[in-house]
Specification:
This protein is 18% helix and 43% strand. By secondary structure, the chain is of the alpha+beta class. A six-stranded mixed beta barrel has the order 1-3-2-6-5-4. A four-stranded mixed beta sheet has the order 10-7-9-12, with no helix packed on it. It has helices at residues 16-24, 46-52, 182-202; strands spanning 3-10, 27-34, 37-45, 59-64, 68-77, 84-92, 97-107, 114-117, 121-127, 135-138, 147-149, 160-161, 168-173. Strand 5 and strand 6 (84-92) form a beta hairpin. Pfam families: Ribosomal_L25p, Ribosomal_TL5_C. This is one of the proteins that binds to the 5S RNA in the ribosome where it forms part of the central protuberance. Residues 180-194 have a biased composition (Acidic residues).
């Protein structure tokens, strides 16, 4: 489980104008909430926060204005430029169980057919400071018709499945057979008919 230390500053100005000013200073407006406490309005260094958020379910240890552990729960980015506009952080405690989404990845190659992955992440419950980075599925040698459900996933110790165990994660399907497109088939039929008529006329 990744843990990143980031220095937080308190902020008392709100609204779009105040948020733009914070971003011009290369910082990101943040709200820290949870455990029935009043939401705390903070600003975090933009570059450090952006790097931290590259890791799924990164645990952020805030210092400075507050000294808390938090998980990202809402990230807003500029739709065009991609920079961080706002982040919601959920206050967590060591030993506390939290529900998160972890990525599902595959290793190996199927024996035949095509691997169709339906689920790229799965909902689990884990201790806040021991959230797995993801879960791997070994597909080596799987044949057509094989499937893996959420209940088949081998989760790390201390992690429990929250998603429906019957949810399909992936399956192996047969490769599609090449069929002539309807227009092409009609064109071929027309050419064949014209050829037959020309042969009859020649006779």
């Amino acid at each position: 489980m990744s843990e990143v230390v980031i220095t937080a500053e308190s902020r008392n100005d709100f609204g779009k104008g105040a948020a733009r000013k914070i971003r011009r200073e290369h910082k990101v407006p943040v709200v820290l909430y949870g455990h029935g406490t009043e939401p705390q309005h903070l600003s975090l260094p933009g570059h450090e926060l952006l790097l931290a958020l590259r890791t799924p379910n990164v645990l952020i240890r805030l210092q400075g204005a507050v000294s808390e552990l938090a998980l990202p729960k809402g990230v807003q980015r500029d739709p065009l430029k991609g920079f961080l506009e706002h982040v919601d952080l959920l206050l967590v405690k060591r030993g506390e169980k939290v529900t998160v989404e972890i990525p599902v990845t595959t290793t190996g190659e199927v024996a035949d057919g095509i691997l169709d992955q339906q689920l790229v992440s799965v909902s689990v419950e884990a201790e806040a400071t021991h959230i797995p980075t993801g879960v791997e599925v070994d597909v080596e040698g799987l044949e057509i018709g094989a499937q893996v459900t959420a209940g088949d996933l081998k989760l790390p110790k201390g992690t429990t499945l929250v998603a429906d165990p019957e949810t399909l994660v992936l399956h192996v399907t047969a490769a599609p057979t090449a069929e002539p497109e309807p227009e092409a088939a009609e064109g071929e039929a027309a050419e064949s008919a014209e050829g037959e008529q020309a042969a009859e006329a020649a006779e």
